[in-house]
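JOB MANIFEST
job_type = single_chain_structure
chain_count = 1
residues = 171
[input]
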Amino acid sequence: KKKISLNENWKRNKIVSAQALEFADYSCECNNKHSTFTAASNGKMYMEGHHLIPMKFQSEFDVSLDIYANIICLCPICHRLMHYGIHSEKEYHADKLFENRKYRLIHSGIDITRNDFKQLISIWIYIDKYSSHILLNNAKLIDNNYFTRDYTGAMIIMLNSSFFKLSFINN
């Protein structure tokens, strides 16, 4: 069995994240009516930065994903939803956030279509669900790419030992 980890640690800039929260006026971008508590560190409503396009996909882009346009201001509940909520709720909020940010992303050099974004989010939700580790059992190696299926029948393709694309195919 070969265990592949998708935990690539890309450097994050805490200053950019803090400034993105400030730019959003410390208001949850999923629901601006959400309130939390006053943070001792800055006297503002406590919020958290979330990368709309996850940093796991940095290798797929020519520009940094750790930029203002890609960092969303979320309350802790919505941030947990984006990481631990059910698929349909994550997808709904991610799509809404993308629609609000798509022009800022394009202007920042992240030119991604809504369909490509939805595909990335589906991959990200799948990866998060399985704790960012996938066991490749009986994987076939063709041109340095692994092809296998998980227990749900989803096709898993590992390209150049760094990136998974999933397509859900009927057997």
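[summary]
The longest helix spans residues 87-107.
The two ends are 23 Å apart (CA to CA).
exit_status = 0
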